[in-house]
Amino acid sequence: MRTEKLQNKDIIDKKLNIEDLEAVSGGAYVENQILRQALRLPEFGHTTKNYTQITSILKDEFNVRIKFEHGDDKNKYWDIKTGKPLTHLEVMKRIRAKYPREGDSE
User: Fold this and answer.
1) Beta bridge partners of 103
2) How far apart are the first and last CA of the chain?
3) What are phi and psi of 15, to 5 degrees?
4) In this predicted model, what pLDDT tens digit does every residue of 19-78 receive, in sequence order?
5) Residue 86 class from Cβ within 10 Å (0-12 exposed, 13-18 middle, 19+ buried)?
6) How far apart are CA 92 and CA 18, in angstroms?
7) Is-above-0.85 flag for pTM?
8) Helices and strands (H, E) in the chain, number of each type
9) Cα-Cα-Cα-Cα dihedral of 8, 10, 16, 20, to 10°?
10) How far apart are CA 53 and CA 86, in angstroms?
11) Which of the residues 13, 15, 24, 102 has an alpha carbon 20 to 30 A from that of 5?
């Protein structure tokens, strides 16, 4: 993961990848938006239905359990089979393996 700070010009001039976003992001809200986009879900507000949809997809397709957090806290993730905690980046790697970003080579 990138740890150097990004300058405003970097943020404005290019599409950010997940490592960039984690370097500049706060917590759960940004993670939830990244998950939504990666899973190709429409934009949504903070409704139970939206969180249920993400929870279901992560469980059924990626073997991941999620506990949504709020504010600056980051979501918590676990591998369902092993019970091992996962980072947001590890979850995103699973998602990107199935749903690559537009322009990523497959």
Assistant:
1) none
2) 21
3) -75, 135
4) 555 545 568 888 988 999 999 988 866 667 788 999 999 999 999 999 999 878 899 999
5) buried
6) 8
7) no
8) 5, 3
9) -80
10) 19
11) 102
